[in-house]
Amino acid sequence: NGDGAATAPAPGDWRTVVMTGQAVTSFVVGLELRYGGAIGESFRSDSPQTVIRQLRAERSLTAGAAFTAYAGSLERVAAFGNGGVGIDLRNGSLPVRQLTAASNGDAGVRRALAFGGTVSDSIAWGNAGPNFEGFAAGELRFSDGDPALAGQDGNIDTDPLFVDLLAGDLRLTDVSPCFDTGDPASPLDPDGTRADMGAYFLNVCE
Asked: What's the pTM?
């Protein structure tokens, strides 16, 4: 907060980031938002011209990230420790993959009736509400955290074995059941291996 150790950040210290409709394509890549949510979620995309990859919203007073429109597929979004829903899919029909939602105060990943897309290669774990809410068979694939859909379409329901869930380190350990178990039809991870479940792939090249 610019004052040394005199104060610490807290949920709701600021409002929200909203991507509105625009004439040209915008890219949101590698964005991390903390301690927002004073009004609405920390991040919301209402623009069909916004490409979103590698977004993390954490410790919001309310919801983490919400999506009513975006361009192309939505990839590698993480939500941790938010007061409300971690990741809220409100509209659209484009594919979503490699989400991680953990330790949020409501559902981890929520699918509204107006959302017609599929979610794959994702993890929702340890949330106060359902890990995955609003999903039926065929709408969630090769993902971890939904007991009702486990055993169908490559889904599992077992501890993802994050590096440190309590501290918000949502990377996978090398013994994680989510390592190399994403959809075989998905694009390979950047290290050239089968897709991992979740927003953070385990780099075998390191």
From this structure: 0.95
